[in-house]
Amino acid sequence: MRYALERFITDIKDAIAATGKVPVDLIEITTPKPNIPADRTFVAFKAAKALRIDPAKLAAELAATIAPPPDSLIGEVTATGAFLNFSLHPQRLAVAVLNEIETAGEAYGTVADGAGRTVVIDYSSPNIAKRMHVGHIRSTIIGQALVHIFRALGYRVIGDNHLGDWGTQFGIILAAMQRYGRPQSEGEAAMAELEALYARYNAEMNNDSALEEEARRWSLALERGDPEARSLWQWCVDLSLRAAQRNYDRLGIRFDYAYGESFYEAMLPEVIEEALRSEAAFRDIDGAVVAELDKLPKFIIQRNDGGTVYMTRDIATIKFRLQTFNPSHIIYVVDARQELHFRQLFAIVRAMGYARDVELVHVPFGVITTSDGQPLSTKKGNMVYLEALLDDAVARARALVDAKSPDLSPEERATIAEAVGIGAVIYNDLYQDPRRNITLDWDRMLSIEGNSAAYLQYSHARCRSILRRAADEGVALAEADLTLLTHPSEQRLIRHLARLPEALREAGARYAPFVIADWCYTTAREFGIFFEQCPVLRAETPTLRAARLRLVAATANALRNGLALLGIRAPERM
What we know:
This protein is α/β, with parallel strands linked by helices. Helices cover 53% and strands 9% of the residues.
């Protein structure tokens, strides 16, 4: 589908080309500055220079010559100095945008830019045998939003949960289970027990070299494939995945694969040999394999005792993804503290001859802090675990829903509270630049009047409520004459609804879900202004009422689609 704004730009280029005054390759259309009363602009400087004519004169001549065809989306054409400004035709715009939203439905806003290409997105990546906490939530939420965005852009998307299921810490975990016994509970309770066992053994190990040796023995046994070690390790993996899945289900997280670091174990010797053979790495005087590339600090590929590190497994992971999925992009959603690691990783992979034509992208993000700006930390005793965070969010939302909608059934209020509470957590992360640190401010997060998920969800629910009342009153939407939608607030809303495909493309190009969040917030705000200034159910005429109801329906549809890109549900009632 070619959307209205795309057709508008094509109409402008065709109209300028039809004058015969400007070659097609010199026609560039831009978005004007906010203070310019126009929708698109042709800046004449470049063309005028090539044509050796005064730019203001060229713009004036074009304005006087252009004659858009009757079905064009071009309305007014004016010249201001060297700027040739184009405004949308209000009636034709209303018809075009509302019809394409109604026709496309849930697909409105999607494009096919990425058709035939694959994107791998690496996100969430919790550590096995540890509870998920707020430190994991940002990668999980941002990553899932990027999955939705790139799928809507037409890409085949591979979401991969790169689990931290390997490393020396498992020697301590296995030794602790052998010494103190395996947890008998399930879910988060069992995970908490595992963490306590790890901490207890680690503390005792500091004063007992025999315990340290026992942990080292279990670590070696695991790496060598000892059946008992592998069995205990697999139990930890399965337990952790079951516990994490409850959180993922509530957040609407869906992975295509969950390959842990252990999956790449067999590839590591070959990766090290390739790094040496390609001279991307070298063996230093102590016997370790290291790399020093692109003026980056020296880093290790293999320890001098033969052990591997995160970098080794990450190189193997990229190699596997290239060979298995043939992606155009590999995107890592990992916190900003790992920026140097990814610069080094991308440098050595390219030095080894891989991913020459593939976009390797690190999407960094900041930390979550308390309302007074304190970092959340297990050592400080203020860590918030993910299951408890989601439970708290839903409980707070339930109190809000109970107060606002006591007439709804308890079951419906519970469903709405889950959507609103989880939506608050997701939107609190996504509405701002991911590099910024974010805070847990429940009053703001659950407000139905500010820039929050609850405000957006309430706007959608209000749209649906209006449409239900119209249906109860027997209003026939077929009577609508969309050309009547010329009020300034109607036109601003329609223009903004038309921008969803543009916002989607911008969000993908910048790896920035906050672009979609901003589009959703502006949609809700513009709808609120329209609702205040333009009576809907009590419009002056039945035809205008039907037209405004069609606009309300289109707003609900588009806003639901925008929220879905963020992974937020849009309740029918609130």
